[in-house]
Amino acid sequence: MFPFFLAQVAPQEIVQIQQVRELPGKLDNVLVFNSNSPELVQKAGILLSTFPPSGKRAKTAHLNFPLQGRFDIFAHHVAKAPTATNLRSLYLGIILHNPSDKPLQVNVLQGATFLSQPDAPFIELPALTENPLSKIFAGPGDRVTNVILRGQRQSLPAYILLPPRQSRLLLNLPIPVKTLDPPINGRSVLMRLQSPRPVYAASLAMYAPVDAYKREIAPTLAQWQQLLFAGSLVSPRDRAPTPPEQTTKTVIYGRVAGIAQGSQWTAQIVDPNTTYLTIPRSRQAFSYGLSTLPLGKLGTNQVQSAPLLARYPDTAYSAHGNYGIQYNLNLPLRNNTNTAQTVTVSLQTPIKEDKLSKNGLRFFNPPARQVFFRGTVKVAYNDDRGLPQTRYIHLVQKRGDRSAPLVKLIMKPRDIRLVQVNFVYPPDATPPQVLTIATTR
Q1: What pTM, to 2 d.p., does this model score?
Q2: For residue 353, what are the β-bridge partners?
Q3: What is the dihedral of CA 125, 147, 397, 76, to 10 degrees?
Q4: Torsion-angle region of residue 61: left (phi > 0), alpha (psi -120 to 50) or beta?
Q5: Which residues are bridge partners to 421 per DSSP?
Q6: Alpha carbon distances (Å) from 191 to 211, 339, 381
Q7: Closest CA to 379 of 412, 409, 353
């Protein structure tokens, strides 16, 4: 008997003829300490430092950029055993420094940190799952952003006290690999902080010291400070980004190591000169770009990437992808017809394009294999009975994924219904996405 093989069917491309609009609103001015380059860390050193260069051995490793008021800290790094026998844990340390002659309290408003293993392994999940109890996640970035979306603080102190002209550790945690096969692991961190006066911050990597019994111990503050003052930038470095002025068909965006501007994007999505958004005509749709970027503007002229106010020369020019940025989108939908209309609101992952080649968004059926979005979305609205609903929905979207709707409403003639969509753009996602409003009948 001959073996029987099933040929893989190539996905069919589907074009959704429609308009793609620029997203109203803008990023706020909150600064984000963004430590994501190099992603893979295999040597001790400085990942990102906003300290002044004075007194430091590697002066170019220190950006001299104090943080004050509301600011975020985002960090995502991966540890891989450099050799089969060297399985020591890599520690990620984040230091805050008070340069003034008065004590300083820095408040941790929200925050979370998780490992890939065992906290949040990358597992297969359904495309759409209700997630009311935060139990659905795959990957540390997915899990971290879910905590922040809910306004929570997980396993972190409520504040940190900084004596005059002294430093303290905000984070000092391992990325262990010893029991893993292969020996590779990652950690994601996202915090929202508040400081009444300027502070300096640094993220650093160090292999765990060992005691007399060869047991791993956490690095001390003094050891981290020694690394900060005498160390250099972690190497090897990630691939250098394509300069913005270089116009090519392909682009290397690069990973971020610097201070970005923008923690949240708030949008009141309405028609011009009105307080509502008219729903599409029957069997039509329109979309708003999310996390659009150079070569991925989807026919708009909008780049949503957070600008970088300070960076290292070999890292990303902007925070493309907007990892850790929260989108707060308000849609006061209005049915301006004389008949009831069925309306859906969806988050979708179309095929990336800069200009729309076919007068609409392109999708695959079935979607491609690569996961491009994995995270929880919060939706709030009044249902068809007039009852308020707040739902947390976990999405897994692949490249070219049209996705099932987040919300489905039957709107009466002249009805106005507010739909709120909130999510924190998850690390490990690949932009852009769109928010689509469609009238199905």
Answers
A1: 0.95
A2: none
A3: -100
A4: alpha
A5: 329, 379
A6: 31, 47, 28
A7: 409
Answer for the pair 95, 167: CB distance below 8 angstroms, yes or no.
Answer: yes
Q: Is 55 left (phi over 0), alpha (psi -120 to 50) or beta?
A: left
Neighbours of 358 (CB within 10 A): 12
How many residues make up the chain in this entry?
441
Burial profile 364-401: b = 16 or more Cβ within 10 angstroms, e = fewer: beebeeebbbbbbbbbebeeeeeeeeeebbbbbbbbbb
Token pair in block for residue 377: 């979305």
Q: Report d(CA 361, CA 215) in Å as an integer.
A: 56
Residue 402 backbone class (left: φ over 0; alpha: ψ -120 to 50; beta: rest): alpha
Say if CB 379 and CB 330 are below 8 A apart.
no
CA 293/CA 302 separation, integer angstroms: 8
- What is the residue whose two structure tokens read 């860390």? 41
176-181: long-range contacts at Cβ-Cβ below 8 A with a sequence spacing of 24 or more? 176/89, 176/115, 177/79, 177/80, 177/81, 177/87, 177/89, 177/90, 178/87, 178/88, 178/89, 180/117
- The pLDDT profile of the chain, 441 residues, written as one tens digit per residue, is 444 444 556 789 999 999 999 999 999 999 999 999 999 999 999 999 999 999 999 999 999 999 999 999 999 999 999 888 899 999 999 999 999 999 999 999 999 999 999 999 999 999 999 999 999 999 999 999 999 999 999 989 999 999 999 999 999 999 999 999 999 999 999 999 999 999 999 999 999 999 999 999 999 999 999 999 999 999 999 999 999 988 777 899 999 999 999 999 999 999 999 999 999 999 999 999 999 999 999 999 999 999 999 999 999 999 999 999 999 999 999 999 999 999 999 999 999 999 999 999 999 999 999 999 999 999 999 999 999 999 999 999 999 999 999 999 999 999 999 999 999 999 989 999 999 999 997
CA atoms within 13 A on the CB side of 65: 23
Sign of the Cα pseudo-torsion (57, 62, 67, 71, in order): negative
Angle at 347 between CA 345 and CA 351, to 5 degrees: 130
* Whole-number Cα distances in Å, 265 to 28, 290, 345, 422: 6, 10, 19, 10
Report residue 47: phi and psi, to 5°.
-90, -50
